[in-house]
Amino acid sequence: MERARELIKPYVEKEGVIGIYLLGSMTRPYRDELSDYDIEVIVEDAVYERTPDEERQVFVFKEGAKEDGRKIIDYEFYLIPWSDFEALTESTHDLFHQPYKHAVILHDPEDRIAPIIAKLSALPEDVRRERMTVHFLEFLYRLGRARKTANRANEMNPGINLRLLYGDALSALVKLLFLAKGSWAATKHWSEQELRLLGIPEDLLARAACLKGIPKPEEAKALVEAVRAFLDACGETFHHDMDGIQRWLFFTKDGKRAFERWGLR
Q: Are 54 and 37 in contact, with CB atoms under 8 Å apart?
């Protein structure tokens, strides 16, 4: 983190800077040569309003380094007004929660950003249980719809439809696995690494990989059984009452609101 602390020095003494922290893969054990320093700078609202657009987000590229002919970002400064930062605590997007679990605070002289970061990273138990129910049912329904789609005549069964359905099933499953481990879901481009760090069994991840393509019926069935066994091992019981889950989701106000709030978009 020494380099990050060096990078922020020009910002530390600037007017209206409340705090600075580092996010992203640079804070994680799987960082690599393509990882960059994602540094967010929280400023007073009035200061943000006076800041020119070109200074609100600043990219610096690595000298000479390229990926597929494109320059590689070395570090980025992203300014956020205080009111927007506080409002993130009400967001339903995983992006504004899970990364903050590993945020490294670099500058917080008045201890104003640490409490917000702690709140962003925390996963309330009622949210966790509500979302597990929604994503579990989504996972099963998408697999069922994919099976029905695959059984239609070839001319009525475009490959894009199937891949969308299996992709949704995989997305719902990944969210479910994170939640079962007490975490908001990670960004998609680091999900597998984060699932491993949480201790998701390798055999379950291997079975889930069948959804990258078009799984055989027996593969999909084995995956569902493995997911149910995983939830059992985590001490969960909600998945045993399918009738109750469906009644809650489709016929109660709470269930309908939960699906609207957390369902795959």
A: no
Q: In angstroms, rounded to a whole number, what is the distance separating the alpha carbons of residues 256 and 10? A: 49
Give the per-residue pLDDT at 157: 61
* DSSP string computed for 13-53: TSTTEEEEEEESGGGSTT--TT--EEEEEEE-HHHHHHS-H
CATH number at residue 39: 3.30.460.10
pTM for the whole thing? 0.91
Tell me the residue length of the chain. 265
Question: Are residue 145 and residue 242 in the same domain, yes or no?
Answer: yes
Task: Please name the amino acid found at residue 112.
Answer: R
3-state secondary structure of 103: coil
Give me the number of domains the chain comprises: 2
Residue 224's nearest CA partner among 148, 147, 143 is 143
pLDDT tens track for 208-225 = 999 998 899 999 999 999
Read off the pLDDT of each residue in 118-140 and give the average, rounded to a whole number: 97
Instruction: Quote the tokens at residue 151.
Output: 């059984």
Say how far apart CA 174 and CA 188 lie, in whole Å. Answer: 9
Spatial neighbors of 253 by CB under 8 A, at least 6 apart, are: none
Which residues constitute the domain of residue 190? Answer: 125-262
Residues ≥6 apart with Cβ < 8 Å to 48: 16, 56, 79, 80, 81
| 50 lies in the same domain as 112 | yes
H or E stretch including 73?
strand 70-81
